[in-house]
Amino acid sequence: MGLEKPDFKSHLDADAPVTVLSGAESQQTHAQGHA
Q1: Does this model's pTM top 0.85?
Q2: CA–CA gap between residue 7 and residue 18 (Å, rounded)
Q3: If you ran DSSP here, which 8-state letter would residue 4 be given?
């Protein structure tokens, strides 16, 4: 599970915004990662 969690999160973040987290939090993380 420990290895699957980061792997799935990274793939989700790279493919699309993380919907698992709050909308504002996910948007901020996505914007910072890209910017």
Answers
A1: no
A2: 13
A3: H
